[in-house]
Design a protein that fits this description.
Length: 412
């Protein structure tokens, strides 16, 4: 009994607010990219943007290279690819663009056409990713190549200097725009991290309140019920009633602890959402407790319950939460759809390789009642499939059978 009714103080894991705040700040200032290095945060979005940009540049650039021959067309294709690559790999994209532009010096007959407008994209991307030194080197490389290539068409030195200054200005503006983008993303990430930290602190405060009030109170109920159950002069019926109170209170305690664990879970700073990340798992301290709690719940709803449990091997704690959640949903389905004039059979068999649960009930003759297995059972089947289990339902006349199988190694 002590293992179930202990004070929950030792369940609370504490961490200093400063430490959590510092960790949140480090994640927020890691940069505007995701953990995979994506400039736009999402790898899929970044790849889509890169492909779309490369295609757009190809449509704009390649037609302008047709008059200069096949070499110029290939140059236009290379510049289009380099522009798109700059979104995912700014330095690699800038290097590819520099190499393609260098061909314009080696082959006087070739021309990049409108491809000369691609270098600012690579430089802006470098600045957006915080690659300062590579961005400067790539910018100087592109400016030098474009200036040398333009010397063939410039009539005077003044025109050549003017052209170089224009390109320096364009690349500088591109770099500043990229740096501004990075600054905006960092500021948004910092605000989001601060908001996430505040929400996490509120959840932890709620968890502490639940521990100080709810868990302590229910623990006292368990102690009182189990003490009264074994007191002298208590009848068998009263002892069973106290045992039922104890089992229900233990189940509630475990659910509260599960809730506190969920409340103490930090919200991901990267904004990712997981529908099961903060879900509360309905579970009991053991599989036997879960079966007894299910019987108590059905009896409270005026059902007669025949409970049978066989065990060749103990049900591991890792499988108990999944099984308890399944049993809880099946019991709720029985209460909604079954006829309480007939008994409900719950049969559990625990083996070395898994657990099998059978629940048999009689369908209510009320025509309003649907017995096709609603969203709850469908969702339950999906959850079981995710951990290698299965859910089967079968109707034979007025008898409805629910069969659940779960391997004991659920990986949880």
């Amino acid at each position: 009994m002590a293992s179930h009714a202990h004070d929950a103080t030792d369940d609370v894991v504490t961490a200093s607010p400063r430490g959590r705040r510092d960790d949140t700040a480090r994640r927020a200032h890691a940069g505007p990219m995701s953990s995979s290095g994506s400039l736009l945060g999402s790898p899929r979005l970044t790849l889509s943007a890169a492909i779309a940009l490369a295609f757009f540049l190809a449509v704009i650039i390649i037609p302008t290279t047709f008059p200069s021959g096949a070499a110029s067309v290939l140059m236009g294709i290379g510049l289009s690819i380099g522009g798109g690559l700059s979104i995912t790999r700014p330095v690699a994209g800038g290097v590819l663009i520099g190499l393609v532009l260098t061909v314009a010096i080696l082959d006087p007959l070739s021309s990049p056409g409108l491809g000369v407008l691609v270098p600012p994209i690579a430089l802006a991307a470098c600045a957006g990713e915080g690659r300062l030194l590579p961005g400067i080197v790539i910018g100087l490389w592109h400016t030098t190549v474009i200036t040398v290539a333009a010397e063939r068409t410039m009539n005077t030195t003044a025109d050549l200097v003017t052209n170089a200054l224009v390109w320096i200005f364009m690349l500088t503006v591109a770099y500043l725009l990229g740096a501004l983008w990075r600054s905006m993303i960092l500021r948004l990430a910092t605000e989001r991290a601060r908001h996430a930290f505040d929400l996490a602190e509120q959840r932890r405060a709620i968890a502490r309140d639940l521990h100080d009030t709810g868990v302590r109170a229910i623990t006292e109920v368990i102690l009182l019920a189990e003490t009264a159950q074994h007191a002298d002069g208590v009848s068998a019926a009263d002892a069973e009633a106290f045992a039922r109170i104890s089992r229900t209170a233990r189940l509630s305690t475990d659910e509260l602890r599960s809730l506190m664990d969920a409340l103490r879970t930090d919200v991901p700073v990267d904004g990712s959402t997981d529908p099961t990340a903060y879900g509360v798992t309905v579970h009991a301290a053991s599989w036997d407790d879960a079966l007894q709690a299910a019987r108590d719940r059905l009896q409270a709803a005026d059902f007669t319950v025949n409970l049978s449990s066989e065990s060749d091997a103990p049900v591991p704690p890792s499988a108990t939460p999944v099984l308890s959640r399944c049993l809880w949903e099946v019991v709720a389905n029985v209460i909604r759809h079954a006829d309480d004039e007939y008994p409900v059979a719950i049969m559990s068999a625990a083996m070395s390789d898994g657990v099998e649960l059978l629940v048999r009930n009689t369908i209510d003759h009320d025509p309003v009642v649907r017995v096709d297995g609603g969203d709850g059972l469908r969702g339950l089947g999906e959850q079981l499939e995710a951990v290698g289990g299965s859910l089967e339902t079968q109707r034979d006349g007025d008898t409805f059978l629910t069969r659940i199988q779960l391997p004991t190694d659920t990986g949880r």
